[in-house]
């Protein structure tokens, strides 16, 4: 099995050139060099020209991908009793403040937590658990909402959150290998438009340093940002 994977890796590396691919070239090519048998995630990494030491240069926000990510997002709604039925009807997988105690015992089998402003003061005791996992609700990420039902529906239909890591890189899944080329093109364009719109006013010089596209366990390829984003 390992020899077969090694051969596949060698074939992939031989196909990848050091050039920067246009988006139209990259999407079909990234599928071609994918060798796993499951429906792999298509991922994008964008290295930004920001100073990560400055809080006002942190890039984060949300974007509604036209065709979603192809992944079923598991949502916990931490809301008061009067909002529980709204959250359940909107599609939340888990609902209710009882889950705070479950989180304290180590349970975090969720992708996103939606909370109403009125319950945020109850989350201090689990902040050290949620924070490192990126699960702490945040108004800037639209995960603290007075309208949890609307937020849950938007996330289930393709809204994703993003933020730069400590190296100034934004990582995100933007679809699956099974998506049509056009669906992936649409998602990538919408994602990049949002990243560009979120450029900090204090950021100087080149904003989009590099863009790489990859699939689960595949090598990445470099995209030519100037050819289609004018970034």
What report would you give on this structure?
This protein is α/β, with parallel strands linked by helices and 231 residues long. It has eight helices and nine strands. The strands form three sheets. Strands 7-1-8-9 form a four-stranded antiparallel sheet, covered by helices on one side. It has a three-stranded parallel sheet with strand order 4-3-5, with helices on one face. Strands 2-6 form a two-stranded antiparallel ribbon. Strand 3 (75-78), helix 3 (81-90) and strand 4 form a beta-alpha-beta unit. Helix 3 (81-90) packs parallel to helix 6 (148-156). The chain is globular. The N and C termini lie far apart (43 Å). The mean pLDDT is 89.
Shape: globular
Walk across the major sheet and give the strand order: 7-1-8-9
- In the predicted model, the low-confidence regions spanning at least 5 consecutive residues are none
Instruction: Output mean pLDDT.
Output: 89
Strand and helix layout:
Elements: H1 2-15, H2 23-32, E1 41-48, E2 60-64, E3 75-78, H3 81-90, E4 94-95, H4 99-104, E5 112-115, H5 127-130, H6 148-156, E6 159-163, E7 169-176, H7 181-197, E8 208-215, E9 221-223, H8 225-228
Parallel strand pairs: 3-4, 3-5
Antiparallel strand pairs: 1-7, 1-8, 2-6, 8-9
Helix pairs in contact: 3-6
Which features does this protein show?
9 strands; single chain; 3-stranded parallel β-sheet; 231 residues; alpha/beta; 20% strand; 32% helix
